[in-house]
Amino acid sequence: MNDLAAIVSFTVNGKEVAVTSPAIARLADVLRDELHLTGTKIGCNAGDCGACTVLIDGRQVCACLTPVGQVAGRIVTTVEGLEREGVLAPIQRAFHKHMGAQCGICTPGMLMAAADLLARTPRPDEAQVLDALGGVLCRCTGYRKIVEAVLDAANDVPLQPLPAMGGALGARAPKWDGIAKLTGRDRFGADDIPADALWLRVVRSPHARATFTTGDLDAVRRAHPGLARILTARDVPSNGYGIYPDVKDQPVLADGVVRYRGEAVLALVGERATVEAITDDTLPIRYTPEAPVVGLDAAMQPGAPLVQSAKPGNLLIEGRVRTGDTAAALASCAAVAEGTFETSFVEHAYIEPEAGYARRAGERIEIHVTTQTPYMDRDEVAIVMQLRPDQIRIVPTACGGGFGGKLDLSVQPLVALAAWLLDRPVACVYTRPESMMATTKRHPARIAARFGADTSGLLQAVEVDALVNTGAYASWGPTVANRVPVHAMGPYFVPHVHARGRAILTNEPVAGAFRGFGVPQAAIAHEAMMDDLAEQLRIDRLEFRRRNALRVGHVTATGQKLEASCGLVACLDALEPHWRDAHAAAERFNAADGRSRRGVGIGCMWYGIGNTAMSNPSNMRVGIARDATITFYNGCADIGQGTNTTMLQVLSDAVGLPMDRFRTIMGDTDLTLDAGKSSASRQAFVSGKAAELAGKALRARVLEAAGATEPAKIVIANAQLSVEDARGTHSIDLASLTPDERGDVLVGIGRFDPPTTKLDADGQGVPYATYGFAAQIAEVEVDLQLGTTRVLRIVAAHDVGRALNPQQVEGQIHGGIAQGLGLALMEEYLAGKTENLHDYLIPSIGDIPPIETILIEEREPLGPGGAKGVGEPALIPTPPAILGAIRHATGVRVTFVPVLPHRLRAALQLQNNSQAHA
Amino acid sequence: MGLYLRPATLEVALDALHARALTIVAGGTDFYPARVGKPLTDDVLDIRGIEGLRGIRERATDFRIGATTTWTDIVDGALPPLFDGLKLAAREIGGVQIQNAGTICGNICNASPAADGVPALLALDAAVELCSAAGMEIVPLAEFVLGNRRTRRQPHQLVTAVIVPKPTGRTAGHFLKLGARRYLVISIVMAAATIEVDASGGIVQARVAVGACSPVARRLPALEAALRGAKADGTLGSVATAAHLDVLAPIDDVRGNAEYRVDAALVVVRRLLDELGSRL
């Protein structure tokens, strides 16, 4: 028999180890904390996500569910053990080739599950791959490229090289940080916490609405010697944060009032074991719960209790777009459709929970954190701490998925405050339930729409009234309320538009940014309207959309004339043969008259790239040091979407040096320049342009220093920089130049701010410099008896301006489709009920159908090489395409998502009953 | 941090259980998820190292499946068609990671209304072997699981095996699960059946059980009676009627409402019987 003092010995990656952690400790924790094998990731600690998958005696298991005591004498293999003498295993090379990793947080789990399969079945078929990898969730990739990689592993593919110089932009370059992600070497938020860090645990409200008082916290501290400090609202220098400069409504720690379940009340700081052992119910917090305001109707009822006292009617903000006379236009329309559509809270469910640590350095604080927005983090923490922004340094770690959820502050102000007060490094890692309960969600929306068209099938008028539930605090509610009216009519030319968006406060989770900022919700409504009108007018659904598609030269409802890069018609043209084939296939299937029916649907979208009607510049810097090392100071946070690679592709061509010549520093606010947020699909377009300009500036500087003229070739060899031009070779004496504070002697800086204007009271102006366009077709099979929907295939046509990296664009599209499928069919966050990854369902590897992507490249003249964004456009057409397909299959027009089986079954029964009575 | 006992023999384990209250851990797949973000303070008896507790043994009149037999052991086991339903259920329990660690007795003792293994074992007429320092008893599975997270196991007892009786005639089993996604999904409804036929394909005995539609998975005795004497073929499902499912008492939850569950259960049971009937 063993007891807790025993040492457990086992083999890890071929090495004998003896660990002193208690035998009941999770193997995942022991690997990470005691053996420093942080390649094994922890996503849920509950066996729901599979990120911690390792092999024990060759079989895949969740290291988070394995007592280390059980591995005594056994053989454990982690992702760090896949390489052989520095050579990547075939499965790693296949992942690298197919871009099986995006953010990389699920990658170790995927690789280990695949390794188990391949050891037993070297040439698996697709069904075997799905079964073997079914226990690992991925939120980025849409799984298809992972499946491709596993199927290709047996072919022993060579290591994918970087593209040749001059052809980087537009090449299918492998991920710059891909190998780090495939070997477990990439460092995420929880991977690099200093050994001497104190731990911070947030105590959160179990009530959605309550007042509270705290008792004798000093007594608690005295009772627990390992407890260094208990932080309360009183400790926070300026206790409010928020996205907008004038709306700092969310407290870091609640000050006597809690407005949603999961709101931060206290922070316990001390030894990790101590803060984890103190249970919330032993703390002297006395809550007086009140009936929470839940749902739009309750919040908007006259006399409803206020969520925030300064917001009468619980109205946070209203946005509108108005042009023409919709009432008169609708009266003269040959066909008018209307409907109301509702969506649910949706959780980002990135597999990496929020994590980071802070340390104080004199009068400065350094925060290492997983984030989408290092510069906004810096400025927000500065406000909270009442310090200057230059006293805060944000060092982004690798980010294990964001999707908008890591734009708002999470651990940052708490660890900063604790580290500042205690002058010790302080770390905080959210648990999965905490991540789900405390952080932002997609806004539930209720969108009432009325669309009218004339006899020739041209849209004449659109009225949309969108209500979004923004939860307890503003977060990105204003963005959503403004973005929805601009996009509410869809990617179509409409002369008369009246669209309104209102964000309503409730005692529900804070709704913030989530891939699309309300546009996915709006697209469900506008595409249902398009299907209605096409049906009324007996026009093919694709043709009806094409007839109305925005084209170059059209003026939008905000009065903006579209000058270039409107590729919707090209997308629809490209889809048309697939559309016909899909209809034929569905008809053949349905003729068999089984218990299932197939249908085909189409969804279109447009999406303004970058922030709405406001300046959102990016700045990039690249420098050459005296030893001829060239450093790219890349202010973009790579959140898995791949800006570490694409920015370098743009820069490489602009400077005229190969990608592998550059050293990259990502997002460090002391070293890079502000490249804005990784949000609003803006990085490829805005930061990409800034990178291009920085590269060109550096090239000009180098040529100038060399006295060379174009055409020229920059050469770095043996720590020497020289330029070859028509007149010969000119070397530059780098040692003679004066280095700047970063040690660089030749520097290029680029800045790009997409030209936009403010919107007036009627929403008139130029909200975005360019728009992405897309159309997707979904083919589904609905089980009429069970109400289940299986998506059989998606064909996605996206106008991306120019694909900086086609493989990454495909990856974005696949991942967006997976999230869109989840939104349509299964994802519904219910506070207190689905705060884990087994009650809250995101698509698994078996739910994503084959996806065909078609890239349309109608060049955007402002973008780098003609590029614009794709991150959010990827998701937006998917739900309406799926819902349209369900309708085509069954006749049911879905008005509430997710359309879980019981909801679709009820709708089918309702339809049967009404048909029976008709 | 509590005690961690990892005995190598059953005797030592039973003595330990006799001496003190202990939380029993086998695969860990239910133990850790119940403690996310919480300290691990339980006094634990880890039964994974006990000799002879893992594996499937065919005996004269039954099969004995040891307590720590994993779902993968069942999937990989060379077993007769009787176990086809249990094997299908095993493949639906979590991902392969969970199947490699999770044990048959853990699934039973965790007593989740949505335990995928339980309907299949009910359809196999399984019994639970309970041991304590005082002796052994065999309890039918239907009597062992009392409710949501409740069983008849006393704190000093250990479930040591599941016993599956051998049928006399040609028998096969089947299992179907309905969930809102393909993998890693808690069932909305699942059903399992075992059917024994005579030489002409007439049903001698049928056992059908439905899970996730009541606090404990339930056999459907009225349906089983109706199936006796019927011919096993691809239309067998038409025997099942809504009234046969009256013993179910489903609830509304995040996965589906009660009304849907009742409807879906009938659909799933009919398909299960159609498919099983066509195989016999």
Task: Name the descriptors.
heterodimer; A: 918 residues; alpha+beta; 7-stranded mixed beta sheet; 5-stranded mixed beta sheet; 22 helices; 23% strand; globular; B: 280 residues; 5-stranded antiparallel beta sheet; 4-stranded antiparallel beta sheet; 9 helices; 14 strands
What low-confidence regions of chain A span 5 or more consecutive residues with pLDDT below 50?
none
Instruction: Name the average pLDDT of chain B.
Output: 97
The chain-level mean pLDDT of chain A equals 97
- Based on secondary structure, the structural category of chain A is alpha+beta
Q: Strand arrangement, largest sheet of chain B?
A: 4-5-10-6-7
Number of strands of chain B: 14
Backbone shape of chain B? globular
What's the assembly state of these chains?
heterodimer
Binned, the helix content of chain A reads: 25-40%
**Shape field of chain A:** globular
Strand content of chain A: 15-25%
Strand % of chain B is: 25-35%
**Count of helical stretches of chain B:** 9
Per DSSP E runs of 2 or more residues, the count of β-strands of chain A stands at 33
What is the topology?
The complex is a heterodimer of chains A (918) and B (280).
Chain A: E1 8-12, E2 15-19, H1 27-34, E3 53-56, E4 59-62, E5 75-77, H2 90-98, H3 107-120, H4 126-133, H5 144-152, H6 178-183, E6 198-204, E7 210-214, H7 217-223, E8 227-231, E9 257-258, E10 264-270, H8 272-277, E11 285-289, H9 296-300, E12 315-323, H10 326-331, E13 335-342, E14 346-347, E15 355-361, E16 364-369, H11 374-385, E17 392-396, H12 412-422, E18 426-429, H13 432-438, E19 441-442, E20 445-453, E21 459-471, H14 477-487, E22 496-505, H15 519-537, H16 541-548, H17 568-591, E23 596-608, E24 618-625, E25 630-634, H18 643-655, E26 662-666, H19 683-706, E27 712-717, E28 720-725, E29 728-732, E30 744-752, E31 771-783, E32 788-799, H20 806-825, E33 851-856, H21 878-890, H22 901-917
Helix pairs in contact in A: 2-5, 3-4, 11-12, 14-15, 15-21, 16-17, 18-19, 20-21
Chain B: E1 4-5, H1 10-19, E2 23-25, E3 44-46, E4 56-58, E5 62-66, H2 71-76, H3 84-91, H4 96-101, H5 104-110, H6 117-123, E6 127-132, E7 135-140, H7 141-144, E8 145-147, E9 150-151, E10 158-165, E11 170-178, E12 189-197, E13 203-211, E14 218-219, H8 221-227, H9 258-279
Parallel strand pairs in B: 1-3, 2-3
Antiparallel strand pairs in B: 4-5, 5-10, 6-7, 6-10, 8-9, 11-12, 12-13, 13-14
